[in-house]
């Protein structure tokens, strides 16, 4: 057991949990750290290992938000179930077909999201009802299916896409969108975790210490987001989207 590698990965997991609890995107920190620190292991095994700390981070974030932010309980439960099934299916498809086309597509979408959020200053600053209850139900369940599949099939940026969907399609502000996104992301992470456990692709000696570090980071991140509110989360959202764009562009151009 390489204890120095465990300590390094726990540090990155703490940071990933902190960022993920605020606006999502912890995988953008954690996954590259795994690939760089443990290059001798197969990539599917490393990705599978990150799912356990990601799941714990999402659960901690969801718990912290749910204590202070009202959740649309009658719709979020079915949405989580749909996202769970879609994420499992996405992981199954990933094991049989390549997902190389997803990165350019996600890059184009994220650039559009960044520009729109930057220009529209009031985006996500106020919670407002823009759809009927019936439309809200359909849109949330559609989001659960689409983004859940994306998380299982590709993954990076899932939390950000969930936040964006809750703001643009449902009318939530950033804080309420983050609260709901954590619940759905916990469901998709659970599905991926169970899939990789079944496939035997998890390094438990790394996964559990990383999970503890991720929990700690998520606790602090969620508390900070709740304390600072929508303006702070908007800035963090723009920063994370910009970082994601740069990372995807680097991967495509190198």
From TrEMBL:
Pfam families: TauE. Keywords: Cell membrane, Membrane, Transmembrane, Transmembrane helix, Transport. It is found in: Cell membrane. The keyword Cell division does not apply. InterPro entries: TM_pro_TauE-like, TSUP. It is a multi-pass membrane protein. The chain crosses the membrane at residues 45-63, 75-95, 101-119, 140-170, 202-220, 232-250. One of its GO terms (cellular component) is plasma membrane. Belongs to the 4-toluene sulfonate uptake permease (TSUP) (TC 2.A.102) family. This is Probable membrane transporter protein.
């Amino acid at each position: 057991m390489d204890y120095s590698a465990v300590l390094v990965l726990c540090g990155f997991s703490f940071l990933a949990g902190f960022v993920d609890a605020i606006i999502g995107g912890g995988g953008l920190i954690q996954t590259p750290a795994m690939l760089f620190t443990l290059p001798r292991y197969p990539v599917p095994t490393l990705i599978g290992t990150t799912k356990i700390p990601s799941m714990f981070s999402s659960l901690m974030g969801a718990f912290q938000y749910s204590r202070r932010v009202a959740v649309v309980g009658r719709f979020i439960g079915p949405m989580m179930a749909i996202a769970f099934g879609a994420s499992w299916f996405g992981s199954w498809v990933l094991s049989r077909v390549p997902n190389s086309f997803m990165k350019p597509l996600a890059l184009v979408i994220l650039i559009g999201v960044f520009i729109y959020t930057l220009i529209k200053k009031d985006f996500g600053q106020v919670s407002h009802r823009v759809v009927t209850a019936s439309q809200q139900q359909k849109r949330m369940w559609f989001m659960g299916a689409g983004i859940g599949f994306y998380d299982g099939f590709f993954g990076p940026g899932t939390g950000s896409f969930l936040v964006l969907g809750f703001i643009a399609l449902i009318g939530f502000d950033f804080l309420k969108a983050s609260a709901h996104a954590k619940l759905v992301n916990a469901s998709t992470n659970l599905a991926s975790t169970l899939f990789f456990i079944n496939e035997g692709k998890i390094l438990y000696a790394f996964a559990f210490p990383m999970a503890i570090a991720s929990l700690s980071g998520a606790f602090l991140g969620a508390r900070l987001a709740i304390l600072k509110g929508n303006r702070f989360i908007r800035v963090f959202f723009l920063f994370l989207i910009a970082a994601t764009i740069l990372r995807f562009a680097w991967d495509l151009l190198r």
